Automatic annotation (TrEMBL):
Belongs to the binding-protein-dependent transport system permease family. It is found in: Cell membrane; Membrane. This is ABC transporter permease. PANTHER family: OLIGOPEPTIDE TRANSPORT SYSTEM PERMEASE PROTEIN. InterPro entries: MetI-like, MetI-like_sf. It is a multi-pass membrane protein. It comes from Agromyces protaetiae. Its main location: membrane. Gene3D superfamilies: MetI-like. Keywords: Membrane, Transmembrane, Transmembrane helix, Transport. Pfam families: BPD_transp_1. The chain crosses the membrane at residues 7-25, 99-127, 148-168, 188-209, 254-277, 297-318. Residues 100-311 form the ABC transmembrane type-1 domain. GO terms for biological process: transmembrane transport.
Length: 326
């Protein structure tokens, strides 16, 4: 119980610090988003509406910064993230709600595939260390060392421009109306194949290498030797004894990676012009859209903190030694 209480208090303090930084950083950026909004909608929004816009967006200069800070907390507790500048007059929650499923679907599926495939390959390589299987490590490490934007551009040039197998940008065929039918779903899968493939290729080596090293470490433990001496099959010893204990750090890392799924792969979404939350955040920064920036940062922060809490509790459940007092 003490372990859970300490961790919850720690993450509450972290969440407060993250929200505070989230409030102050956009306001320290140069530029005036209200003036930019009026210039963008020239003729549609009169200039005498500026005071009302400042108040509506929580940028009322007549209020002290501390008062704006407390007002910001009040709107958060009401679930109101404000109105987006770039997508005026849409609420920020609605804008993020439209982009979030695309990122979670694409990056989430790619991360899960990368984790399971990488862990399985790492288990086999670690169990058969010193064989030809070790030659796969330099190959996977090479692709992970390549900058992601460069890997994405190579994939676009090879599979989109040269071979014409996949589209180079977008998330679905714009001639289709989004709906739960096979035509639209197949279009989403078709457009998402190339971005997902680049995510898997660039991230799988970390899972392979981590699992391989842990399997090599635990394969010399006494319980593995005893299992082999009992005459158990090699497959059962490898998965039931070696891999079962070696996977503990992998589970912790996987839980953390789930938190970063919400943030998306910003570079991937920029390279492929994919309409996820990472690309949305990039556009919000360019447009000086304070409410949208704060909303994106807040969602990403909450997701990462929730993933950290999940990782702590899962690891404590799998390995009771981590929650015992020293």
């Amino acid at each position: 119980m003490k372990f859970m209480t300490r961790r919850i208090v720690f993450y509450l303090i972290t969440a407060w610090a993250a929200v505070t930084i989230n409030f102050f950083i956009p306001r320290l950026m140069p530029g005036d988003p209200v003036k930019a909004l009026i210039a963008k909608n020239q003729g549609k929004i009169p200039t005498d509406a500026m005071p009302a816009l400042y108040a509506m967006f929580g940028l009322d200069e007549q209020k002290p910064l501390l008062q704006q800070y407390f007002d910001y907390w009040g709107t958060l507790f009401r679930g109101d993230l404000g109105i987006s500048f770039a997508f005026f007059p849409m609420p920020v929650t609605e804008v993020i709600g439209q982009a979030l499923p695309w990122t979670v679907g694409l990056v989430g599926i790619a991360t899960i595939i990368s984790f399971f495939v990488g862990t399985l390959i790492g288990t086999g390589i670690g169990w058969r260390r010193g064989t030809w299987a070790d030659s796969l490590l330099p190959i996977s490490t090479f692709f992970s060392a390549v900058p992601y934007f460069w890997l994405g551009l190579i994939a676009i040039f090879t599979f989109s421009v040269t071979l014409g197998w996949f589209p180079s940008s977008g998330s679905y065929d714009r001639s289709l109306i989004p709906a739960w039918n096979w035509e639209f779903v197949s279009s989403v899968l078709y457009y998402g194949t190339l971005p997902a493939l680049t995510i898997v290729i660039s991230s799988i080596s970390g899972w392979i290498l981590g699992m391989r090293n842990m399997v090599v470490t635990v394969s010399s433990e006494d319980y593995v030797t005893v299992a082999q001496a009992k005459g158990l099959s090699e497959r059962r010893v490898m998965f039931g004894y070696a891999a079962r204990n070696a996977i503990l750090p992998q589970v912790s890392s996987f839980a953390l990676s789930l938190g970063f799924i919400v943030g998306g792969t910003l570079i991937m979404e920029m390279v492929f012009t994919y309409q996820g939350i990472g690309f949305l955040l990039f556009n919000a920064v360019n447009a000086k859209d304070y409410p949208l920036m704060q909303g994106c940062f807040l969602v990403i922060t909450i997701a990462v903190l929730a993933a950290n809490i999940l990782a702590d509790f899962v690891y404590a459940f799998l390995d009771p030694r981590t929650r015992q007092e020293g």
